[in-house]
Amino acid sequence: MKVKLLTTISFFTYQLSISQTEKLLHGKVASQELVLKNIEVINKTAQTSTRTNELGEFSILAKEQDSLLFFSKDYLFTRLKLTLKDLEKSYLIVEMNPKAEELETVVVSRSVFNKTELKEIANNREEVNKIKNRKQFDDVTTKVTVYDGKIKNALNFSYPIFDKPKKKIEPHDDLFKKLIIASCPPEFFLKNLNITSQEKELFIKFCDADPKSKILLEHPNVLATMDFLYAKNEEFKKLETKNLN
Fold this sequence. Notes:
By secondary structure, this protein is α+β, with helices and mostly antiparallel strands. It has nine helices and eight strands.
């Protein structure tokens, strides 16, 4: 009886020690059996981050209940809350889903293909590219050139060649908004910050008014940007509460 009791106590002590201490977690990020490199792996709880290597592998310190974020511009934002089972694994496999890719519209004559063939072509990028190239060739070969007396590539004296074109200066708020869009997936505002689509534009302007937003533009960083938005979200919610009162 004493042996069983000691075994049970030892087991629970081991489980508790694992859950409270950090462990170097090893894993791999993949998508449809394709390993993903340069995926940003962020431990939101511990405020640390790393990236996957050429083989899609990563190593990061973590413990039970830590939130791991996996971010890439070409894949859907993935979040994983670590459990004790995850920590006990020698290797963690994380699957990411690619974002939907929009194909350019291609006009195909109905007299050439039937419905079944059109579906097959629409799902085959190589066939789509062939049709686009064929159309471009037809457009070029069907054009008739008529000589109008002008010299090809002649110098246009009406154009102020000595005046350098003015550089377009992008507004600061647009730059900050682009930084936010590049750093955070669309669902981040609703799921993590509880900011609705109606409040999103106002919230971004509220954050942009903070002088710290200029520092983020000079030194862009995904983790620092998310931390800034979390902090500003608390101020934003307090401001909303005051206005309601």
